[in-house]
């Protein structure tokens, strides 16, 4: 009798372990920073092949950006994309939706709600094209609101901290603290475009913290993080607004003290000289990575090994980040085929 009970206990323990492994499979998080020539498209893939794509790049160009997203998805072993999050409706973020869904199935779209910038034709065209995709009835849709969290079986969480001009009060995994950098950040007028409506996402993978605020503008950064830095420390910053000077105030970038900043700029779009200078002076920053050499930034660009695309013809090289749950990660440059590793803190 005792042996039978013991066998049942052992069996239950084995089943519990198997369930735990199914919920959190071993392996690393992959993040693909896709070159969409000054737009944004960032693909997150968990070890069990669940996926989140933030933004879709531009329309047209013979489907260039959709093809590059598809290539990254195939490299990651995906046959569909679970979530496509649109930070806002500017054409360099939302314009690629119709071409993307022609190439790979998508399950769910996430957005901030109605278009707020109705006077700009490229923006309204991108928004209308997205609405036509939704009108097919093939896709689920989630309205992003502060505090809503996407939870993936492998343990990745993605919490919306800004959306449609609103902010979360308390970030689940963050440790708020006073923000001394508000005093050294100039005050700027309120932005009236879709940029200020950007969906910002705070991602947690084990001990790692990753921040993507879309194109959130300087004024909104200060409204969100002053006088209290609600985000605490972040390991990886996806630089807002492609490194344009309308974003990346010291109140944001210096306060969150990222170990690594990754800028999805183009050669002539984003990568503003003042922003690059600000980023490279972040206290404790170990590296600035760029998708392109910025012609405006000139000698202030990151060193060549940290840039995916240098001068010359369009090459479309990507950056690929591999993250472990213990907080260590590495960045692979497709141009140089070299990998730089960052130890866990």
What's this entry about, in short?
With 345 residues, the protein is of the alpha/beta class. The protein has eight helices and 20 strands. It has a nine-stranded mixed sheet with strand order 6-5-4-3-2-1-18-19-20, covered by helices on one side. Strands 7, 8, 9, 11, 12, 14, 15, 16 and 17 form a nine-stranded mixed sheet that branches. It has a two-stranded antiparallel ribbon with strand order 10-13.
Plain-language structure description:
The chain is α/β, with parallel strands linked by helices and 345 residues long. The protein has one domain: Metallo-beta-lactamase, Chain A (4-Layer Sandwich), CATH 3.60.15.10. It is built from eight helices and 20 strands. Strands 6-5-4-3-2-1-18-19-20 form a nine-stranded mixed sheet, with helices on one face. Strands 7, 8, 9, 11, 12, 14, 15, 16 and 17 form a nine-stranded mixed sheet that branches. β11 and β12 form a beta hairpin. It is globular, with a radius of gyration of 20 Å. The termini are far apart. The N terminus is likely disordered.
């Amino acid at each position: 009798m005792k042996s039978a009970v013991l066998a049942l206990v052992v069996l239950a323990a084995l089943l519990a372990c198997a369930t735990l492994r199914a919920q959190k499979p071993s392996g690393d998080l992959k993040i693909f920073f896709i070159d969409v020539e000054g737009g944004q498209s960032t693909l997150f893939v968990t070890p069990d092949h669940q996926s989140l794509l933030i933004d879709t790049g531009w329309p047209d160009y013979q489907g260039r950006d959709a093809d590059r997203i598809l290539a990254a998805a195939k490299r990651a072993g995906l046959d569909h994309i679970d979530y496509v999050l649109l930070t806002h409706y500017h054409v360099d973020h939302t314009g690629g939706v119709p071409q993307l869904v022609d190439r790979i199935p998508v399950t769910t779209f996430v957005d901030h709600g109605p278009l707020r910038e109705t006077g700009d034709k490229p923006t309204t065209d991108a928004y209308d094209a997205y609405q036509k995709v939704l009108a097919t009835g093939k896709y689920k849709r989630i309205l992003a609101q502060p505090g809503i969290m996407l939870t993936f079986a492998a343990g990745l969480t993605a919490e919306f901290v800004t959306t449609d001009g609103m902010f979360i009060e308390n970030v689940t995994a963050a440790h708020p603290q006073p923000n001394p950098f508000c005093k050294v950040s100039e005050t700027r007028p309120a932005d009236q475009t879709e940029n200020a409506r950007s969906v910002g996402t705070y991602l947690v993978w084990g001990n790692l913290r990753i921040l993507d605020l879309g194109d959130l503008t300087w004024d909104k950064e200060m409204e969100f993080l002053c006088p209290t830095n609600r985000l605490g420390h972040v390991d990886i910053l996806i630089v807002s607004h492609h490194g344009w000077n309308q974003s990346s105030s010291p109140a944001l970038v210096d306060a969150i003290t990222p170990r690594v900043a990754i800028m999805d700029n183009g050669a002539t779009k984003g990568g503003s000289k003042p922003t690059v200078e600000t980023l490279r002076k972040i206290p404790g920053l170990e590296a600035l990575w760029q998708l392109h050499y910025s012609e405006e930034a000139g000698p202030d660009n990151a060193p060549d090994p940290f840039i995916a695309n240098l001068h010359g013809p369009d090459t479309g090289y990507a950056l690929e980040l591999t993250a472990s749950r213990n907080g260590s990660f590495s960045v692979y440059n497709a141009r140089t085929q070299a990998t730089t590793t960052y130890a866990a803190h």
